[in-house]
Specification:
The complex is a heterodimer of chains A (111) and B (114). With 111 residues, chain A is an all-beta fold. Chain A has strands at residues 3-6, 11-14, 19-21, 23-26, 32-38, 44-50, 56-59, 62-65, 75-77, 86-93, 99-101, 105-110. In chain A, strand 5 (32-38) and strand 6 form a beta hairpin. Chain B has 114 residues and is mainly β. The chains are: A mainly beta (111), B mainly beta (114).
């Protein structure tokens, strides 16, 4: 069945450091791929998405490219801020658009 | 603000009881999804409705049921509650059920079973 694997956290960085959170997936067909972010005490917010191979999603300085050959959708940001501290979830959608999530990666950014 | 509303925000109840969680989707969205977030299981898909019809089921227990009403709001009913049902329950909505559609999440209902 479909599944998502993302790197375990927590990830601790200093402000302005480069961020990479790895995400790989297993799926039949051509799923869409998403990154959601969850700030403390809040629901999930869409960060970015890509719906076909080689698409690059981007938002708020974050980027991820849908790589079918490596079944990956790694999240990157060139310079993180303290306000980026949150839990990041990689997800894929297949039939009927149900989302399958990775375990989540907690990011802590220190000044 | 995603436009998806959920009530109540918090719910504390006892084992064996029954509760109802309510969700109002974004204006115009026809599809509603329910997810459970717990420390041991992570985020898991429970069930999906599209324009009043059940379309997909995930890891939803038989003690749980849901429905989507003609005005498109949805309710998730949890009965014979157990300690392990304590979790954050999210509702999400999307315009259609296409896998390319973005799902917008509500703020969640935190259920505590004592």
């Amino acid at each position: 069945g479909n599944s998502v694997t993302q790197m375990e956290g927590p990830v601790t960085l200093s402000e302005e450091a480069f961020l990479t959170i790895n995400c790989t997936y297993t799926a039949t067909g051509y799923p869409s791929l998403f990154w959601y972010v969850q700030y403390p005490g809040e629901g999930l917010q869409l960060l970015l998405k890509a719906t076909k191979a080689d698409d690059k999603g981007s938002n708020k300085g974050f980027e991820a490219t849908y790589r079918k050959e490596t079944t990956s959708f790694h999240l990157e940001k060139g310079s993180v801020q303290v306000s980026d501290s949150a839990v990041y979830f990689c997800a894929l959608s297949g039939g009927y658009n149900k989302l399958i999530f990775g375990a989540g990666t907690r990011l802590a950014v220190h000044p | 603000d995603s436009g998806v509303t959920q009530t109540p925000k918090h719910l504390i109840t006892a084992t064996g009881q029954r509760v109802t969680l309510r969700c109002s989707p974004r204006s115009g969205d026809l599809s509603v999804y329910w997810y459970q977030q717990s420390l041991d299981q992570g985020l898991q898909f429970l069930i999906q409705y599209y324009n009043g019809e059940e379309r997909a089921k995930g890891n939803i227990l038989e003690r749980f049921s849901a429905q989507q009403f003609p005005d498109l709001h949805s309710e998730l009913n949890l009965s014979s509650l157990e300690l392990g049902d304590s979790a954050l329950y999210f509702c999400a909505s999307s315009l259609t059920e296409w896998w390319t559609d973005t799902q917008y999440f509500g703020p969640g209902t935190r259920l505590t079973v004592l």
